[in-house]
Structure formats: structure tokens, C-alpha cells
Amino acid sequence: MNNIYERLRDRLETMASGYPATPNGVELKILQKLFSEEDAALFLKMAPEPDTAQELALRLEAGVADTAARLEDMARRGLIFRIKSGGVIRYRPVPFIVGIYEYQLNALNLPLLKDISKYYLTGLGATFHGLETPHLRSIPINTEIVADRPVFPYDDAASIIRGKSRIAVAECFCRKAVRMYGKACVHPAETCIQFDAFADYYVENGMARYIDTDEALAILKQSEAEGLVVHVLNSRQVEA
What we know:
By secondary structure, this protein is α+β, with helices and mostly antiparallel strands. The protein folds into two domains: about 5-125, Winged helix-like DNA-binding domain superfamily/Winged helix DNA-binding domain (Arc Repressor Mutant, subunit A, Orthogonal Bundle); about 135-235, no CATH class. The protein is about 45% helix and about 15% strand. Helix 1 (about 5-15) crosses helix 2 (about 25-35), helix 1 (about 5-15) crosses helix 3 (about 35-45) and helix 4 crosses helix 5. Mean pLDDT is about 90; it is low at about 145 and about 150-155.
């Protein structure tokens, strides 16, 4: 297979929610809008686990400065994830969902949104909703409102928030998309909360702002008052 975007699609298909091929090829059109051929080539060479620019450059026999600049540029555009710890920056590839798709928050435009909507209806949606383990789960705001069943700390939204060291809030991607289509949404825009490394990534990329625990809990309370359901990533760590 010579088409680099087909190879990129196949790599994404192996990750998390997948990225299936479609007869109409819209999935390739989306990738061509997001990735240059050079971006795609570098993504394909990245290991699943986080690498520093130095580690990746050594493996690719490439210049460290050039590799670092390319990785940071891709991270800024939401194509890969950036992790900072102990003064060291590492990068790793991310799936389309949860990952590249959500990280286009500031770059979302109507032509891209229409392509993604078409893809969802002709391939991605069936794959995403057919996963044995869903990426998201619904949880209560507080264990006190749940009767007749035990709720673990990682299944209690308020408890999750109180246990995090860094918290950020971003505009809801879904509501932004709905409004881009010209449809009304009466709910607040700033409701998507991220934690720790996810919070850092969102803030550093200009998609979110840091908030304290009290403001995060207030957002939860407001969401509850508006009848919104809390969804979190389906992991015990709960990054968002």
C-alpha cells in the first residue's frame, strides 16, 4: 500500500475506537485536511508509548532539533499528545476518538465538521458504538443521590474532582459543533473538564483554562441543575 493516508488510516484503525475504511473514502479526506504527508509519515514512525524528541530522533537517525520542532508542531495542532513530567517532554500518538477529533476544538470549521459527520454516519459511528468496552461512562454527581447500589470513588464525579491536582475547563466540542450547524443549544458552553496531563495539554494548546476545585464543583452543580448527564473517560484514573 503506497498511499500514506491509507497507511495512517490503518494505524488509527488499530487504536482505541478505530478508524474504519469506507467505500466513499471520506476518512482519507479528513486525514488529508489534518495531516501533511510529512505529519503522516512521522505519526506512523512513532511508538505507542511516549517518546522524547531525542529518543525518537535517535531511532529515526534524524536531527534532534528538527524532530523536536515537528513533534511540537503536531502536538499544537492536536495530532499527537504532549506529556510534561519532571522537566521532560514526551509525545505519543493518539487515536481519532478520544484524541485527534476532540483536539480540533479550536480548528473546527464547517467543511471539516461536515466530513466528520458524513464519516460518522457511514462508518465511524457503527465502529464507535459497537465497542465491547465503551470509551465513556455515565456517573452520578455525588454518591448521595444514588440509592441501593455501591458507588466507587472513581464513579463519583465530586470525589474525582477533589482528588485531582490540576483541573481545566474547555468549551463543549459537541455544543460548538451544533452551533456551527446553526442550531440552538441553551446549555452553557464551558462544561468539559480535564484533569492533570490532559488539563495541561488543553491549556497549553489554548483550548481550556485552569480552574480550582470550587469552580469545577460549581460547574457540576450547574450541569445537574440543567439536567445534563456527566460522562467521563472509562478508566479508573479518569483524565477527563
